[in-house]
Amino acid sequence: MSNLIPIGRFSRVTRLSIKALRHYDESGLLAPAWVDPSSGYRYYTYAQVTAAEVIRVLRSLDMPLDEVREALATDDREVVAKLLDRHRARLQDEVDRRTRMLTFLLRLIDQEGSPMTYDVTVKEVPAQHAAVLRRRTSAQTISQDVGSGYEAIATAVARAGIAIAGPPYLVMTELVDDEMPGEIELGFPVATPFPTTGEEGVTGAELPGGLVAATVHRGPYDEEGPAYRAVEAWVQEHGHVHAGPPREVYLNSPGEVTDPSQYLTEIQFPIAVPA
Questions:
Q1: Which of 34, 28, 35 is nearest to 51 (CA)?
Q2: How would DSSP label each residue in 201-250?
Q3: Do residues 11 and 147 both lie within one domain?
């Protein structure tokens, strides 16, 4: 095959690292034109430069790999335009989120020493059958993982013919932050026991009952920190002890309320009264 370009030269031409080119080959995005069977060395052609540039630009805009693959696989300009429009909307959502977080940060700084006020109450919650899904996630992917997780649970519950009996909840069984991924537990209360082993990792469980110290946060999910702090401080001030990890109960959802400032989340801390 003539006019082959070694991977090192192709890397310089496309401004994609050799490591990235190998990754895109393994991901099925951009396979080399020829691989030397004796050395495994990859070679490309100048005809592949345009595809490489498309990949470089789309990845610089954080388009997911599967959508990049879809854009490269079609000659239909309308399909590509729809993919770009969808990603443009996603980028705008992220700009809006970051702008909102900067405003939230300024509000926190302005209120230093006089934290936001939350009413904390103690109530008894009953034990409840639940359909549960546990997933590992990261700070970067938690929104997508939670959304797809609830879809999987709802689908499994519907196929089992069981009624949902309350709003969805989330338990962060491991801390998830910008540095460390961790496990979360997503669940829907259900009217009757869900099968112990269901589809797509959805299982049946018993959501424990007992006393909880709780407050309701109104606003975006990523601004819940002061609500957690308020409940934690209340538990300590009143001499209670923790009886399990905190639970977030979503009293409404983005499907019902489009304005994040109107999201309602109940933060519940299971507690025990010291003897």
A1: 28
A2: G-EEEEE--EEEEEEEEES-GGG-HHHHHHHHHHHHHTT-EE-S--EEEE
A3: no
Q: Cα separations (Å) of 116 from 107, 220, 275?
A: 10, 15, 32
Q: How many structural domains is the chain composed of?
A: 3
Q: What is the pLDDT of residue 1?
A: 56
> Two tokens at 77?
């300009």
Give the position of tokens 């990603």.
Answer: 87
Residue range of the domain that includes 180: 121-272
Task: Supply the DSSP symbol for 47.
Answer: G
Is residue 61 domain-shared with residue 145, that is, in the same domain?
no
Q: What is the pLDDT of residue 90?
A: 87
80 vs 262: CA distance, rounded Å? 34
Q: What is the pTM of this model?
A: 0.66
3-state secondary structure of 85: helix
Spatial CB neighbours of 187, under 8 Å, sequence gap ≥ 6: 130, 131, 132, 133, 153, 168, 169, 170, 171, 205, 207
Tens-digit pLDDT profile for residues 181-226:
899 999 999 999 998 666 678 999 998 899 999 999 998 888 888 8
Which pLDDT does position 250 carry in this prediction? 96
Q: Are residues 99 and 63 in the same domain?
A: no
What are the backbone angles phi and psi of residue 72, rounded to the nearest 5°?
A: -75, -25
Residues 257 and 149 in one domain: yes
In this structure, are residues 187 and 168 in contact, taking their beta carbons and an 8 Å threshold? yes
- The rounded distance, in Å, linking the Cα atoms of 191 and 129 is 7
